[in-house]
UniProtKB/TrEMBL annotation:
Identification of the protein by name: Dicarboxylate/amino acid:cation symporter
Residues spanning the signal sequence: 1-24
Gene Ontology biological-process entries: dicarboxylic acid transport
Locations listed in the record: Cell membrane
Length: 473
């Protein structure tokens, strides 16, 4: 792997800053703390210049995390006042959730009104999606309750700034009744995400049942709204580095570096849970379906790698569809199962959301019962349907849902600092899960071709000669 001079400079400054900080922190100090402070800020300046060169929003979020942590450590009085930046970002995110969830769910359900024509295959695919994502949800819950990554954060510095976080005692009837909206405008205004989801699902079913001439205009409007909200989210996410920087500065200024250590513990928990999910769920499913595991692994290696590197499921979709056709899944099944799975079969995202939601509760010191955890993560699983294409979609969903369960937002910003690393793994698992789903449905339908040999590409020699004759740029 080749490194640019700027990358090597940043790495060198990081090592020097870390070494001098350790020496200056000794008792008695072995180095003047001013030297360590200067080297840390030089490292941050070089890192920011690298971000300017790369023009990557994800990289800017990482830079903002480092800068925010440094400001919180060096200037805690100033850092406390930067909380307003994270509050602005939080308000902007909250404006997204209701129209985004409503539009994407309506388009996802009513837009697939042809499921009646697809019939048996559609039902089997949806049943498979929900069973596998439910396994992902429970593995995520088990992992975070075992690792307790959010436990142990000292909240004394922010207790006075937060609302009362005691969970409200509710009967089973109250919880069930609270799921259903009585006034959709009130549900939107109060941020009741699950009520918006229920309204959107019933609305979409009603829309799918009406005649085409009545359904199509409204479907076009909701599809346009969905696309606009995608762009709206893109615009809001440009403010993410500033919001994250302010949140991290405030957190470190109030509580020190403890929460960041918990965040890395969460990162390790996620990777371990995803490995367990692949080995204990996806692999047995492939074995039960009698699929050629080696061929499938080799075929999906490229699209999964693309998803891991780009953190985008959509970037890997065309290659993933080609890969599954090459191992014997008929094109009509691939064309139906994989795009539908991108809305309804987000294995990695579901597992991540269950981890993150309970992490927020643990960090806030709120002791949720297993039943309360289930209600929260099932809400997250429902609201995440259809929004996989939105950058940082999980952040939008997570922030809105934890707020509706009377949990604070500051632990979410801690998660966002390492979200890029988490996003890589969960996106790769999303793509792998959808590839496997298409093969499973094909086998279930009795249409998987075991000895399929992909046809060699047809090469036009005249076109090839013409291309070779072109000058190389």
């Amino acid at each position: 792997m080749k490194f640019s001079r700027l990358s090597l400079l940043v790495l060198l400054l990081f090592v020097l800053a870390a070494a001098t900080t350790v020496l200056a922190a000794r008792t008695p100090p072995l180095l003047d703390p001013t030297v360590a402070l200067t080297l840390r800020w030089l490292f941050l300046a070089a890192l920011a210049w690298m971000a300017v060169q790369r023009r990557s929003l994800t990289f800017w979020i990482v830079v903002s995390m480092f800068v925010g942590a440094e400001i919180g450590n060096d200037y805690p009085a100033l850092a406390v006042n930067l909380k307003v930046l994270s509050d602005i970002f939080l308000r902007l995110v909250k404006t997204i959730i209701a129209p985004l969830v409503f539009a994407t769910l309506v388009v996802g359900i009513a837009g697939h009104a042809d499921l009646k024509q697809v019939g048996r295959m559609g039902i089997k695919a949806l049943v498979y999606f929900e069973v596998v994502t439910t396994f992902a949800l429970f593995i995520g819950l088990a992992a975070i309750n075992l690792s307790k990554a959010g436990m142990g954060i000292n909240r004394s510095g922010i207790a006075a700034d937060m609302e009362q976080l005691q969970t409200v005692e509710q009967s089973t009837s109250d919880i069930i009744l609270h799921i259903f909206p009585e006034n959709i405008a009130k549900s939107v205004a109060n941020g009741e995400v699950l009520q918006v989801v229920v309204f959107a699902i019933i609305f979409a079913i009603g829309l799918a049942m009406v005649h085409q001439k009545h359904r199509q205009p409204l479907l076009s409007v909701t599809e346009s709204l969905s696309e606009v909200m995608f762009k709206f989210t893109n615009v809001v996410m440009y403010f993410a580095p500033i919001g994250v920087g302010g949140a991290i500065a405030y957190t470190v200024g109030k509580m020190g570096f403890g929460p960041l250590l918990n965040a890395f513990q969460l990162l390790l928990t996620l990777y371990a849970a995803l490995i367990v999910f692949v080995l204990l769920v996806l692999l047995p499913v492939a074995l039960i379906a009698r699929l050629p595991i080696k061929r499938i692994v080799l075929a999906i290696a490229e699209p999964v790698s693309i998803a891991f590197a780009t953190t985008s499921s959509e970037a890997a979709l065309p290659r993933a569809m080609e890969a599954m056709e090459s191992v014997g899944v008929p094109r009509r099944i691939v064309a139906f199962v994989m795009p539908t799975g991108y809305s309804f079969n987000l294995d990695g995202t579901t597992l991540y959301l269950s981890l993150a939601a309970v992490f927020v509760a643990q960090a806030a010191g709120v002791d949720l019962t297993f039943g309360q955890q289930l209600v929260m993560v099932f809400t997250l699983m429902l609201t995440s349907k259809g929004v996989a294409g939105v950058p940082r979609a999980s952040l939008v969903i997570l922030l809105a849902t934890v707020a509706s369960f009377n949990l604070p937002a500051w632990p979410v910003f801690i998660i966002l600092g390492i979200d890029a690393l988490m996003d890589m793994a969960r996106t790769a698992v999303n793509v792998a899960g959808n590839c496997l789903a298409s093969a499973v449905v094909a086998r279930w339908e009795g249409e998987f071709i075991d000895n399929y040999v992909a046809p060699d590409p047809v090469i036009d020699l005249a076109e090839t000669d013409s291309a070779l004759a072109q000058p190389v740029h």
